[in-house]
From TrEMBL, chain A:
This is Unannotated protein. PANTHER family: D,D-DIPEPTIDE TRANSPORT SYSTEM PERMEASE PROTEIN DDPC-RELATED, OLIGOPEPTIDE TRANSPORT SYSTEM PERMEASE PROTEIN APPC. The chain crosses the membrane at residues 39-60, 104-128, 140-165, 171-190, 221-243, 278-297. Keywords: Cell membrane, Membrane, Transmembrane, Transmembrane helix, Transport. It is found in: Cell membrane. The keyword Membrane applies. SUPFAM superfamilies: MetI-like. The lineage of its organism: unclassified sequences, metagenomes, ecological metagenomes. The keyword Isomerase does not apply. It comes from freshwater metagenome.
Automatic annotation (TrEMBL), chain B:
Keywords: ATP-binding, Nucleotide-binding, Transport. It holds the Pfam family oligo_HPY. SUPFAM superfamilies: P-loop containing nucleoside triphosphate hydrolases. Transmembrane segments: none annotated. GO terms for molecular function: ATP binding; ATP hydrolysis activity. Belongs to the ABC transporter superfamily. Residues 17-262 form the ABC transporter domain. GO terms for biological process: peptide transport; transmembrane transport. This is Unannotated protein. Coiled coil: none annotated. The keyword rRNA-binding does not apply. InterPro entries: AAA+_ATPase (IPR003593), ABC_transp_ATP-bind (IPR050319), ABC_transporter-like_ATP-bd (IPR003439), ABC_transporter-like_CS (IPR017871), Oligopep_ABC_C (IPR013563), P-loop_NTPase (IPR027417).
TrEMBL record, chain C:
GO terms for cellular component: plasma membrane. It comes from freshwater metagenome. It is a peripheral membrane protein. Keywords: ATP-binding, Cell membrane, Membrane, Nucleotide-binding, Transport. Residues 370-382 have a biased composition (Pro residues). Residues 23-273 form the ABC transporter domain. This is Unannotated protein. Pfam families: ABC_tran (PF00005), oligo_HPY (PF08352).
Amino acid sequence: MQTNRDTSITHLDSSSLPTIEAIEAPSSHTVKGNRLGTAAWVAIAWIAFLALLAILAPVLPIPDPNQSFVAIARKGPTAGHWFGGDAIGRDLLSRIIWGTRSSFIVGFGAVAFGLILGGMLGLITGFFRGRVDGLITPLMNVLLAIPQFVLALSLVTVLASGAGVNSTRRLAVVVLGLGIVSIPLLGRITRANTLAWSEREFVLAAKAMGAKNGRIMVREVLPNVMPAMLSISLLGVGIAIVAEGGLSLFGVGVQLPMPSWGNIIAEGRGQMRNSPHIVIFTSIILFLTVMALNFLGDAVNRRFGVRESVL
Amino acid sequence: MAGSGTAHLRQPSESLLRVENLVVDFPAGRGKKVSAVSNVSFDIAPGETLGLVGESGCGKSTTGKAIMQLPRPTRGEVSLDGTDLCSLRGEQLRNTRPKLQMIFQDPISSLNPRRTVMQIVEEPLNIWKIGTPEERRLKVSEVLSSVGIDPEAAAERKPHEFSGGQCQRISIARAVITEPSVIICDEPVSALDVSVQAQILNLLEDMKARYGLTLVFIAHDLAVVKNISDRVAVMYLGKMCEIGSPDSLYAAPAHPYTRALLAAIPLPDPNASLDTEHHLEGDLPSPISPPSGCRFRTRCPLAQEICARVEPQMQHVTGDQFVACHFPLQAVSETPVAVQA
Amino acid sequence: MSIGNQIDGLPTPSGTPGAPKLLEVRDIVTRFTTDRGSLTAVNGVSLSLERGQTLGVVGESGSGKSVLSRSIMGLLPRANTERSGQVIFEGKEISGLNDTEYRELWGDEMAMIFQDPMTALNPVMKVGLQITESLRFHLNMSKADAKDTAIALLKAVKIPEPEKRFSSYPHEMSGGMRQRVVIAVALACGPKLLFADEPTTALDVTVQAQILDLLAEQQRERFMGIILVTHDLGVVAGRADEIAVMYAGQVVEQAPTALLFSEMKMPYTEALMSAIPKLTDASHTRLAAIGGRPPDLVNPPKGCAFSPRCPYVQPRCHEEAPALTPSPTAPEHLFACFYPIGSPETEEIRLRIAAQRLMATAPQFVTPAQGPPPIGEVPAPPSTADQPEGM
């Protein structure tokens, strides 16, 4: 067989154009582009606002989150301290803003970790199936069978409890723990989507063209699987932020004095009767954020999910 | 049918694509297997169009994919231009890809919805690093206009903005851009409306003439196959029934199954009497445990005891028509037809 | 059923005083709200049907044929849908019914067979139960009676071993068998009107013939009116008494089957016919494809909807939309065209096109018709061609 890989291009005589039934103009259907919907834009604005606050926390005119003001201890909102103070008189607003830092790092960090590893595994198992799949997928299923929270709790406890652990190390370990937990979940979603898209004829067409597997995975499959991955990841960020709060209740969340939404709520739990504002304010912020992430996840799926026909 | 044999093959030197004793089995769980294609042989001369017809489950699409080595056949030989593709490994096989292309049934599913028409049609050139970016773009424009798509207007659009017929044109453009010698068309018009189907069939004829293509045209519609083919092979349950030039095969089918298929076609003519006499009864048997002997015997009106015992072999009928049947409807030629190499 | 004599299998002459038609549809319009604007899927369709008769509705995808049958049955979703027009079933106006009232009709009086037997059946329910369900709902049958009736129905649609099949699941059956079950479900309560929406499109040609035979047989036995919706002129040619050709949501030509095929008036019908590859034509006969594509139903063209693709188009066609009017020679033949086939304007253009085509395609035409085209330096291959004819 002559594999004639001609590197020049032979131009055919354009006068020999066959008589086809007139060159069709593409459909006049104009697609209404880039519309995420108002709810999604509000969600983006909310998250961007929080992220901005978190980044600018050191330069914002707010008190040090660890500085105690005896006057506002367990007191509700006052003129100088909009969210009031916590049990030992630290400014709640400042703690929430600084807490946004650690909560976002935990949420986005853990999911990014899970997305990269889980996504890669999911893509590989879904694309190749067969032996690779037979090896990795059962492992993932075992991980999935262990209650997620217990798994994260044990991981963090084993890796970073005890006296000698500083806050940064703890933060990293919480990210890692929640990240590992999210691998099988994200991996599974990716794998399911990859399986479906790999069945499509354009993947077969790419193979028939001689494209290598890596190229097919990255260029043909991944872009189609991405929206579902992103959408689930956004939900995952919300879950991870909440899960960090859960870890805090067990004393293995982000380590005090470094604030996080989770540990503010965990700490404020004891003050529920006398000064409920600590838990309530933080929970409202948490609730709004998780909801914004969910909205955004949906919107991403709707916007970037594929339109495959005209109607 | 349900027959084997290679009596109908021409000299290897005359054929561009030659499929011999092709077998494709799929595991069906619990140690069982589905024999999707069983001992199928045919050959195609350069510039010829071979039509593969049969009902769903007859193995025609599997045959097409086995020729592409996607997936690889269980046994048998597929030689393209004298090279046995089944014996090639990895990179060697990959290097033959530009010569052998495929067009699929579902025009929507066969184009990646996230890529533009430009990217889709250019992809084979990118994979093989053919030409400079400028040359590639020119080539894409040229091929797109040759399939009747305005390159200016279409290049940056995505497949969902096009109708089924236009998508199929784009698929054809992608298939011809590497200037392959053989294109396997797997039910390329089954998903299209009649008016669009006619456009695509005409286009395939034009592309064939323009690029010097040899086609394997897989379809279930006998009228469509007749229109485009130089030779038609009828398949049933993984076996070949009959092969011949469409004009003789349709005028005088030698296999009872071919006759039944022809009788079942609803004709767009109210005066045509319905040939209910030759309508088939029953369903396709399971390919996991196909009938012994001739696989068609369970639904064949002419079946005798021998059909259950002996698998019929390809026999010469007339002209280039061959049939695998113990009781063919047309007299079998007495002359020895050992055109086998 | 109000008219006793119909049950004997006597076709009712249309317009019998006092005998309302089985179905009369007047000026149905169905619009869907889409992102891009209002889409008129069905645009002023009027039809009528007697018991025992089959009306074939033919059109390509997007012609509105499926939406029409759903509009008549009241099966369309209420959201984003706007429907107007009258549907008179046995003399009663039914288009204003609510869901509960419709439910009384569905299955009992009118039933539908869908294209895809796999999605039309509930995959987790035994087929027997899917049949007995409507028997028990509409006819208040006892469990045992319903089972007996269901088995009789399965036998009637020629399913082998009906007792055993009664407790099979849909996935255990072949496509043809499933479509038989769908038909059994549809026939269960003895509907007077059956909608068959592309009933054989998903099936193989040999099975298609079986299913169409079965439908014809059941129609004779039960004296049903059938509306057979299909894209395949071949399917309706041998099976329908009357045919309505749809294009862009409108009926563009309607006539008794024989008349339609012998004297097509509407250029679209003619184009649709000539686009079909014929078994009788030699291979490589160039097909007369219809250029362009069906109109966008959100922004339909001005004038006749077919005018942008019509080979015989005249200036007037771009300005005014022709109405569906009876042919002066045969009042049962309706068509919507200013310049029907056979009119002097059309014939003149036809001759011109024929001449042009002959000139333009002659060289291309000849090459593929005679064996393989001359690509490659390969000698013409068929070695067996010189063999003596063995007949």
